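Box 4.2: Ligand-aware structure prediction
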Amino acid sequence: MITRSLIVGCGASLPQRRVTNFDLAKRVDTSDDWVVQRTGIRSRHIASEGETTSSLALAAARQALERSAIGPESIDLIVLATTTPDHTFPATATRLQAELGIRHGMAFDVQAVCSGFVFALAVADNFLRLGQARTALVIGAETFSRLLDWTDRTTCVLFGDGAGAVVLQAVEGAGSVDDRGVLSTHLHSDGTQYHQLWVDGGPSTTQTTGHVRMHGKEVFRHAVTRLSQVAEEAIAANGINADRIDWLVPHQANFRIIDATARKLGIPAERIVLTVDRHGNTSAASIPLALNEAVTDGRIKRGDLILMEAMGGGFTWASSLVRW
Ligand code: UT7
């Protein structure tokens, strides 16, 4: 018997305000046509004053707990992936812990930008498999809009805000690929690419929050290569073929990246969960938001095999195979 992490519920939250490409075209020199053709994004949700990373995370976490029929008192680990914490410290996860009324266990943030959710899932999965925790909340939550330079059309049209959460529970089982739970996680980083996608501020350098800066073409080139590599790694590690995958739930940065990666893997379009058109790139929140959508509308069913993959600043890139 081995211990595995079962995903017992999920939830999500989006800011009220929806901003279309037409709205953005009034602020910067862009057009709906350009943004749709280059990225597939049509609109995104942007946090209003008072909506924060922790408030979005709290709504997503509450929904995930309700759907799992698990009370906050059972949670002994909170791992929150974010690039946009409420404050430089403490970890936003501790604020969430307090708001959920949890006074035990541990709560901390993980920072791997757009790969953050898969990194957080891997961290929690390892804690559960080692027996250091039994029931975990894993959240990806961002108010990425607060890092944007709203005069820079090359970045401000790409991102959005939101949060998604899952509840993980340690279960004992035979550990086969057919058993439910997190089957594998594969994480990578390459800091030599630090300045391809970064924020030009921070407490120890400029004492400012800074703005997102990106060499889009380079990020795009690396993304397609690394995402298909890390997805292949998950497939090979589990001894399966790509045609066994029921759903690809990719990080939602750009439809062209998702499409190119899926083609390399041989996964047909009807098995890809897409939210990029309505959410834009919500960084660490994008995978759990997409996951939640497909679970809520009934596409993802118990026993389905789900491949998640993501790539972001650092660079970081990661995949996870999950039997739902
Ligand atoms: O999670 C990882 C996060 N990031 C990503 O995954 C992003 C990866 N990169 C991309 O998705 C793409 O590189 C972008 C969507 C960012 C850009 O698409 P592209 O096809 O690489 O366009 P480009 O940067 O080569 O720009 C083409 C043209 C340029 O004009 P010139 O030099 O040809 O005259 C840009 O100035 O498009 C111009 N442009 C825009 N035009 C209208 C750049 N941004 C815009 C815009 N509206 N918003």
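In the box above, the bound molecule is oxa(dethia)-CoA. Residues 57 and 73 are 18 Å apart (CA to CA).
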